[in-house]
Amino acid sequence: MEKILIVGPASQILGIRIAQELNINYFNTESKTFPDGENYLRINLDNESLIEGKEIIIVQSTGPSSSGNQNARLIELLMMIDAVKRMGAEKIVVVIPYLAYARQDKIFRPGECKFANLVLCLIDSMRVDELYVVDVHAPKILEEVQCKWINIDSMKILADYIKSLDVKEIVVVAPDKGAVERSKAFAKHFGEDVPVDYFEKVRDVKTGEITMSGKLSLKNKDVVVSDDIIATGGTMAKAIKLSKESGANRVFAVATHALLLENAKFRIIKAGADEIIGTDSIDNEASKVSLAKAIVDYLK
Ligand code: R5P
């Protein structure tokens, strides 16, 4: 079946990269916000029959950016799915490099909802055939999804990039205990015996404020602080500061999804990071590693 890719407004570079790797035709979209705040989206084609009977791959990240917040990104995604369904797509494959709301996967305080699950449920309810996400914050939420799904692992390609920086005596540091398992898996890409350590992080569930403590044996080590998401950079900056205080030589701030909100870049670099490294799940200056090949490996 012929494949066609729809490049969503939030994944313009990654979408084209994937289409080029797959060597398939692609269309972008036209999107805007109406004066009343409602979103508008159309797939930028003149002939709707081009979609009929085809396998349609939609690539749309749902992270916040200056041109759209995550709510708008989700609505645009639903609009793209609906549009290709209406035009007679035979198979619909959805690629969401960054899944918005994924951190709202538990009840932290009475009265909350698990919106992460609802986001997936909404997409699933549109009867898409396949769903691809990347390093989802809590992969367990995917277990409720009915369609075929894959949570793509970006650790190898992030590690390959870091290895190209001529790092020596690496230690992988997790910013909290919860990230240790992920960091252990990440460390394996640098070699069997690469040590993993972590700081103690406590987040106030009401204010969101974090405190972090710990002293590690990092003297003259090149440290890779790894997390799934950098949002405001508070977690990363604290882990980097403590790494430096623990004697680290170079320190790299690495995350699959480097949202870099507010003054995150300033905080992280001021704390002592040599470089901030993310993937193109979020299209910004930290997206030094492209997910295109890793995603294409699954789409093929
Ligand atoms: C939390 O569990 C996540 O893995 C990240 O550590 C967190 O989302 C980072 O947020 P921020 O950059 O705002 O500290």
Report on this model:
The chain has 300 residues and is of the alpha/beta class. The chain contains 8 helices and 16 strands. The strands form 4 sheets. A 6-stranded parallel beta sheet has the order 2-1-5-6-7-8, with helices on both faces. It has a 6-stranded parallel beta sheet with strand order 10-9-13-14-15-16, sandwiched between helices. The chain has a two-stranded antiparallel sheet with strand order 3-4. The mean pLDDT is 96. It binds ribose-5-phosphate. Ribose-5-phosphate (R5P) is lined by residues 103, 175, 227-236.
Fold topology:
Blueprint: E1 3-7, H1 12-22, E2 25-27, E3 29-33, E4 39-43, E5 55-59, H2 70-86, E6 91-96, H3 115-125, E7 130-134, E8 148-152, H4 155-163, E9 170-174, H5 180-188, E10 196-198, E11 200-203, E12 210-213, E13 222-230, H6 234-245, E14 251-258, H7 264-270, E15 275-279, E16 287-289, H8 292-299
Parallel strand pairs: 1-2, 1-5, 5-6, 6-7, 7-8, 9-10, 9-13, 13-14, 14-15, 15-16
Antiparallel strand pairs: 3-4, 11-12
Helix pairs in contact: 1-8, 6-7
The structure holds ribose-5-phosphate.
